[in-house]
Design goal:
Elements: H1 4-18, H2 33-47, H3 51-59, H4 64-70, H5 80-86, H6 89-102, H7 104-114, H8 118-129, E1 138-139, H9 140-149, H10 154-170, E2 178-179, H11 192-198, H12 213-226, H13 242-248, H14 252-266
Antiparallel strand pairs: 1-2
Helix pairs in contact: 1-10, 1-11, 3-10, 6-8, 6-14, 8-14, 9-10, 10-11, 13-14
Length: about 270
């Protein structure tokens, strides 16, 4: 059952997504970022962001490397075979099988609770960060606010920018927390708004930390379940749960690779 806190977070983010357009003027270079931050601060405050989050926004820098990465996502244009080769699918499957065997009880418990099999979670974990080997070196707040400012997909990234500032308020991240080029964070690379909405305390220590593997795996399973995962249903292309994998990443070649690797991990 959702807690009052989770319902409040969901309502706030939905309001940010569905509300009137942000008054801040988007831009395609660093020139207007400072003025945008000033205007966006007022919008963020109306959405419920507190002083710690506003301070992180004030200190955010225009992330040139993020813009370069956003304009240069070549791997998603590869064929499926090339994509799996480049992303190291055989190694992900091999490591995924070993990790499942070593932690069989943990993954079985996640499947009982959320209905998502180990192979899917491990394929995502391996694909996103090499099982936590590299979780990114870009400042999350700077990256995600740069994308909210950038005109190309401002509407998509704006709620995630607000989510990142709320995570700062909550103490889950700081203005210096490092993640991927698009502001994704943790073992499975949650966008900040999704981290706020779907993150769960998997290890029971009273806080959600997506840089903690247990919390990240439980949160990933929770995300997929909340997006419509049907326990026991298949997940290859054309099967019921493949549509849920689509909710994790919009690139078809990525979705196909996850489904194939997951099946190989699960045997």
């Amino acid at each position: 059952m959702p807690t009052l806190k989770s319902l409040t977070v969901t309502a706030t983010l939905c309001a940010a997504l569905a509300g009137p357009a942000i008054a801040a003027q988007c831009g395609n270079n660093a020139g207007g970022f400072g003025a945008w931050k000033t205007a966006f601060a007022a919008e963020a405050q109306r959405a419920g962001v507190k002083q710690r989050g506003l301070d992180a926004l004030a200190n955010a820098r225009y992330a040139t490397d993020t813009i370069k990465a956003d304009r240069n996502q070549k791997s998603f244009k590869y064929s499926l075979d090339k994509f799996m080769q480049v992303r190291g699918a055989p190694a992900i499957v091999s490591q995924g099988r070993k990790r499942k065997a070593r932690n069989a009880g943990f993954y079985a418990a996640l499947e009982r609770q959320y209905g998502v099999p180990a192979g899917v979670l491990l394929a995502i974990h391996g694909m996103e960060t090499g099982f936590g080997g590299f979780m990114g070196n870009s400042a999350v707040v700077s990256a995600i606010t740069t994308l909210a400012y950038d005109c190309r997909r401002s509407g998509f990234f704006t709620p995630h920018a607000i989510g990142a500032l709320m995570l700062v308020d909550r103490g889950s991240i700081t203005g210096n927390t490092k993640g991927a080029k698009h502001g994704e964070l943790g073992h499975t690379q949650f966008l900040p708004g999704n981290a706020l909405r779907y993150g769960v305390d998997g290890d029971g220590n009273g806080r959600v930390d997506l840089y903690n593997q247990t919390d990240a795996m439980a949160s990933t399973a929770n995300f997929l379940r909340k997006k419509g995962w049907r326990p026991g249903a298949d997940y290859q292309q054309g099967q019921p749960n493949f549509n849920v994998i689509k909710q994790w990443n919009a690139a078809t070649v990525y979705q196909q690779a996850i489904a194939i690797m997951a099946a190989q991990i699960d045997g």
